[in-house]
Amino acid sequence: xxxxxxxxxxFPEHDTAAVVQEGGxxxxxxxxxxxxxxxxxxxxxxxxxxLEIRDHTLAGRLGLWLMDASEDEIAKFWESYRGREPxxxxxxxxxxxxxxxxxxxxxxxxxxxxxxxxxxxxxWMMHDPDAALxxxxxxxxxxxxxxxxxxxxxxxKLGAKMARDSPRDAHMLDLEGIANEMALEDxxxxxxxxLEMGQTHFTSALEQWTRKDPEAALAWMxxxxxxxxxxxxxxxxxxxxxxxxxxxxxxxxxxxxxxxxIEKKLFDTLVKxDPDAALxxxxxxxxxxxxxxxxSIVGRTLVQDQPQVALEVMKQLFAVCPDATSRWAGAFTPDxxxxxxxxxxxxxxxxxxxxxxxxxxxxxxxKGLVTASDFTFSNDRDAFAAAGRMWAEEDGDAFAxxxxxxxxxxxxxxxxxxxxxxxxxxxxxxxxxxxxxSDPGQARDVFRDWVRRDLEAASRWxxxxxxxxxxxxxxxxxxxxxxx
Length: 484
Description:
By secondary structure, this protein is mainly α.
């Protein structure tokens, strides 16, 4: 048995028993123990007196009256009450809760005629879920879905059983609501249920568990760390509720992705609360990848307001981890290379922010990190190559103009990169302008790509452009190849 209090202001003492009714929840009010609060006297109200009540005391007094009312009395009361405007939803549920105990068939028929079947289903589901489900099994989808939603509200264990036994109905059940109710007794079972149902995007039960018992939630997460939505929810809850305990929790874990991500979240939290301390911590990191990640995270907070400091952070980052933009990471299985990651994501973001803020200053700082023999833009091999690629992607013409003022090696490699980026963006005329100054072979390839996409525009450009006879001859051959 359960007990719930109807929504509304406190009732007078003589009404206390009347507002305590069998069931679980009305209008979203959480259920507590069922039964009758205190001993109660029989109602002294008549139906006529109750129908005259227009304030919040109706629910309490009506509840007391309904405890002893016959089916005929309830039906007559409803016939009068249903004409009232406006009617109270919780009062409707209360009426049909008692009526369905006496004669669910007549109660449902009356509700159908009055257009309030949901109220009848709500009241019925509280005390006889099996009968209510059977009666709505073949009804239209709207009614069936509502019945199932009430099942999960009042009887989450039955809802969980139905989800397992009847996959056809599982998608209509409030699976998150079931899990949240289960989590009040056993959060681990609640999370296992969600995984069984394939619902990793429902995270509220895990969030509550993490707030109340982070050690237990952590132990469960060790077996399910690959579930990204759960991982993100766990880390966020841990950071919000237990920021000071994150370090000691991470210390209990073996080296690996889980420990690394908790430490990363811990550092993210420190960056927000004390950026100076975060920068000091990052500068003291000795593991190259960790240092690169942390310096990137704190460096991004400095780009707009302290760009020079941010550039110094970038220099330290690549001094500690020179291949931060090109290092490979992956997972091996016995028979194949499972997955790969190139570069460090936070470094990519940090360098991108610097390039957008001041590309020339970024290139100058990156240039100082490589030797003269490495001035090429090849495969993000270092900070210089990666920053150049980012600038070329952002503004190929501006990058090419900068390259024109550099030494031969930078100019040749940079113009090729700029032309290629402009080609991929289908800015063919600009791409050809730079390609013709660095590599005639590349210029022909760009022109061939243009002909394939827009023969008329490419032909017009060739007719109007002043280029060498040799290059024009090569491009005319490309046009000849295109002719049928």
